[in-house]
Design goal:
Arc Repressor Mutant, subunit A, alpha+beta, 222 residues, 9 helices
Length: 222
């Protein structure tokens, strides 16, 4: 228990690790579902009133915190921030959730034989899902497409880890996606280096002008 008596996450109300920062008006929360964040005591209390207005408040804050943590940031939540955050954060559509999960699998699966363990709580935060049914809908869609295999059922408890692996079709699609990304990167590097160093040593101003022209050409939509 911390100085202010909080023993549960102010957002999802799960039992979690909470400390206080320098005995000031800040709580340090490290929640298995919501992630790691700091919040003022007053903001923690006010969250409940916002939840009564909009049941998606928890999902929006979890989705935002997850995105911040992914960038190595521990976000700070102030009282005056809550309403702005809740009104400005748009939760992903079902189609966007599918893309988010596909990208996550692409980032974390390196071999066709890899089996990835993902907690249901982390999935809900990552996808901005308020219910397990939202998560199972995304997983089911990818399974119906023949891209993944998972140990999943509609009665899954939120503190359980899922085992997810790619099918042969899923692995092939992942490799194609990586190949396309590498091709795009090589094209950018190629236009940047050919003849540029030599021209720079002769006429730096002309080299810069040529680089601008090449950048404009490459940036044009196909």
């Amino acid at each position: 228990m911390n100085e202010f008596g909080f023993t549960v996450c102010p957002i999802c109300k799960a039992q979690t690790n909470i400390g206080d920062r320098d005995h000031q008006n800040w709580l340090l929360v490290n929640c298995g579902r919501c992630g790691k964040y700091e919040i003022t005591q007053r903001a923690a209390i006010l969250i409940e009133s916002f939840e009564r207005e909009d049941q998606r408040v928890c999902s929006k804050l979890q989705y935002w915190i997850y995105a911040q943590n992914k960038q190595g940031i521990t976000p700070k939540i102030l009282t005056r921030q809550i309403r702005d955050l809740v009104t400005s954060i748009n939760l992903p559509t079902p189609g966007e959730r599918v893309d988010i999960l596909k990208q996550y699998l692409s980032d974390h699966i390196n071999l066709s034989s890899d089996v990835l363990k993902i907690s249901v709580m982390s999935l809900q935060s990552m996808l901005g899902a308020s219910e397990w049914s939202d998560v199972s809908g995304v997983m089911g869609h990818l399974e119906n497409l023949g891209l993944i295999k998972s140990e999943m059922n509609l009665l899954q408890r939120p503190n359980i880890d899922l085992s997810v692996s790619l099918t042969v079709k899923g692995w092939e699609e992942l490799k194609q996606s990586i190949s396309k990304d590498e091709s795009k990167l090589l094209a950018v590097v190629f236009t940047d280096i050919v003849g540029f160093t030599n021209l720079s040593s002769i006429d730096a101003e002309k080299a810069q002008e040529m680089l601008k022209v090449k950048t404009q050409i490459v940036s044009r939509p196909c």
